[in-house]
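hi! just following up on the protien thing from before. the input was this:
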Amino acid sequence: MVAQRYYYSDTVTNFLSRSENEIIGALTLASQHDINDQTSRSWLEEIETLRESFAPYKGRGCVYFEYNIPRMGRRADVIAVIDSIVFVLEYKTADRIFSREALVQVWDYALDLKNFQEGSSDRILIPILVVPREKDSRCKLTLNHFEDNVYEPLSVNRKKLAIAIEEVLGTIHYDVKPTLTDDLWAKSGYSPTPTIIEAAIALYEENTVEDITKHGGDITKHGGDIDKASEELRNIIDHCRENNKKAICFITRVPSAGKTLIGLNTAIDQFNRGEKAVYLSGNFPLVEVLQEALIRDYLRRDKEKAKIEGRKACSKAVAKSKVKAFIQMIHHYRDLYLEGTEVKGKKIVPIEGYFQSHTDKAYIPVEHVAIFDEAQRAWTKEELQRFMREKKGIRNFPYSEPEYLISCMDRQKDWGLVVCLVGNGQAINKGEAGLKEWIESVHRSYPSWNVYMSDYLIESKDITQEELSLIQKNLISKENLHLKMSMRSFRSEKVSIFVNQLLALQKDEATATLKKLEKYPIVLTRNLEVAKQWLRDHARGSERMGLLASSKAERLKAIGINIRYQPNFVHWFMEDDTDIRSSNCLEDTLTEFKVQGLEIDWACVTWDADLRLDKNLSSWQHYQLHSGTKWQNINKTINKEYQINAYRVLLTRARQGMVIVVPNGDDGVPPDETRKPEWYDGIYEFLKSLGIKEI
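and the predicted 3d structure came back as:
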């Protein structure tokens, strides 16, 4: 059964003839929440104002109340389709003045419909903020639109609403035959690609992964990929639980395919089913940003509920404890289960008598499902030994991180599942173990565990045939555990391909791919201020823009980018442009270490001489600044790989488009020997030769 997208819909003709009580009754029955007096009064005022405004348009369209925007986890108050033009209306009946927040909200609704709803792709969308008691002088009826035919929000009071609609219909002519109803638009495919922050919030509000990745859309698109993997994973969990089995499951993907979304969905889904599961990541910025986003959303929703229920809203500490129940740093989880243990021989065992006297502690994990994001980045035995020796005072730690994490789940008396979310091509730190260590750990110490993976992983070069042979008898192939479609850029799924070709210096291939990125603008400039203005011209509503640079881009300081100063990344990602700490203010720059796993809508990537080209523009040269006076060659192969991957991370953070800045260098008198123009000119000429447009 398909969930209804709206609480109430009708033709304009029928809407004008129905009683207020009839319409409010339909809205109340459709709502999944208790309706208070304030909500009823708001609906009544919406109905009254719309009747006044829609009276001239009988037989020319339809109206929808409480239209669902799944990606945002919210509902637009009213959507009216008149003469095939889509009006998106957000009412603030309790307010007396227009607010920036409300304007952004209604603009976001219109942008969501344009970007993700199939029926809106060729429509004109008019967002309108309605504050019935606002002053006439503050209303804005000027019509300004962007290339995609989404207009800037209009701001009206009760009296001006009718005038605004009349102005739009009298000015804008849309060559689509009007219909009495527009159900084809309302029920057209909806295939959103939420940011990981949006997805986490929507899932936490008890939406499903299907709700926020597709809604009536083509299941063959990216949403179907994620749905299938999530369902497969749930089946594996159920099988382990019902049969008292322990297993490890590998989920692989193409870049930006939504593996983190699957991990969060599984943790939250198990939580909602009364089971305990935990999503774990070694990516500190990702965990911190997600936790903060969920905490803020929990507090917002609880405040609304508390007002209705006549109670005091919960504290931030309470919200934080609830969120941390299913999303944690992997290192915190790891350290938790070290308590009360000791190293004996080549194993970690509980200290005799410890847990009997500490009943509030647990040797056995409380969760039966542990989901490890970026599992290939778990530490080697050598790296973990070094850490435990230096930071924990534990000598001769016997396990690699994969083996230790499996050992924690193996303590369960009945069943357990370790889920490894695997990504490749973004290694930026030393000491990472890769998939090999997970496979060898199972073979070495947990021979009774089942191993689930896709045919893709079995056939790929990520695991050798020799490694596969170690687990062959326990191996269970599941095709749906591989995600084939990229999600990050909803405008083009070929962005990651283009970036890979660029960094591989595959000029012809990159040029051909770039031509296919029609809806994903990539532009080039040598001026940072020009780049910033380009971002400001493109970002709308709550869309996020930001400055990015490599952690080795030391000489960008000369143009005002100091990568040594890393701002609070939570504020950078979470605050709006009224807060100077926000990415939208374009004052602070983050490096690959702070943005990996997260995304923004519009990015400015500033390229320094740390990664430059030889004179023939045929190979990369790798450098880091030494002693503030000269660049030093990076010689180790693995460190060169890290540097390439740093730029790969930076160049794939933007969902909607990016500008690349390559500075001019310095040929002054005396010249700055750390900023020779030829280093930067080579990079610029190569990027330009690919067909990247200059601005």
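The two ends are 50 Å apart (CA to CA).
The mean pLDDT is 88.
cheers
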